[in-house]
Amino acid sequence: MSLKITLNLRRFNEKLRNIFNMEASVAHHITDDYTEVYRSLPLKLQLAYGVGHVLNDVCASMWFTYLLVFFHLVLEFSNWQTGFMLLVGQIADALATPFVGYHSDESDGFCFWRYGRRKIWHLVGVICVLGTFPFIFAPCFGCEYSSRSAQMFYYCMFIVIFQFGWAAVQISHLSLIPELTPNEHDRTKLTAIRYCFTVISNVLVYIITWIVLHMNDGETNKIGPSDGPKFQHVVWSILALGVVCSIIFHVYVKEWDNDVSQNVRGSQLRTSVRDLLLSCRVYQPCLKSKHYLIPLGSCGVHVIQTVRKPNSGFHPPVSPRNSRNARQRSSIGSSGHVPR
């Protein structure tokens, strides 16, 4: 009896030992896996980030809506001169955007970059926008009676600097999203809040412009050279709003240090193009097996059909048009003349 009890105890101890060993191996496997820890962004930080692009939004609304009106009706430039200056601004923006995007990714390690490599470009862009945009919607300072070509050069100079600053604010503000959080849901929230403030900024610009331009004391409703001061009032009003929002952004939004952000996000491997295509069912037959390109009649539409290898005795199906051509070629080879 005692021998049976001893054997049962030994078996029970072995089972317990196996269970503990299995739990230890599972726990070791879990601890070896990569775990990502992050904290959700507070609402105050999300709103502070959203207002960081308000200055760009109000200036863009004035640029695309009222620039042609101001240059053509207030400053009395011709059609091609007004369009040329707008084109210069768009070309400058196209050149400045990749330049800012490339250099904002670099970190030289200077003390100046401790403020944040994204935020420093944002600050430079804000300074450029504030220093040039009021001169665009204003008479030519000191050259009111100069030639049109000299005035165009004057405005193009400020337009190029403004577009560089606008691109710096836009690129740095967008690229700051992955620096703030590794969570995709928080990134989506930041993008949605940013777009929400963009819409609000556009509506505010239209409301302010409508109010200011209708303060004409019973005069004519047509826009002319006498409305120049009104456009300046609109510009200074929206710039004041943009300055307040930019200050809120730089005070409350803290950019992660480059090393810290890499430790938080961890190493993320890029997905190859082949793996990306293999994840789609449409492309799986094309990448995993042999295929043929088969024309469907004379409509010019082609489909990819998976078949076996040609040496296995199976041939791809032939359309009726191709079969008729094959019969014609065989008849030519046998009779020597072309059938009608």
UniProtKB/TrEMBL annotation:
Keyword Membrane in annotation: yes
Single GO cellular component term: plasma membrane
GO process annotations (BP): carbohydrate transport
Chain residue ranges for the region called Disordered: 311-340
Keywords carried by this UniProt record: Membrane, Transmembrane, Transmembrane helix
InterPro entries per UniProt: MFS_2, MFS_trans_sf
UniProt-recorded Gene Ontology molecular function terms: symporter activity
Domain of life from the UniProt record: Eukaryota
Keyword Cell wall biogenesis/degradation: no
Transmembrane segments: 54-75, 120-141, 153-172, 192-213, 234-253
Record-stated family: Belongs to the major facilitator superfamily.
Protein name listed in UniProt: Uncharacterized protein
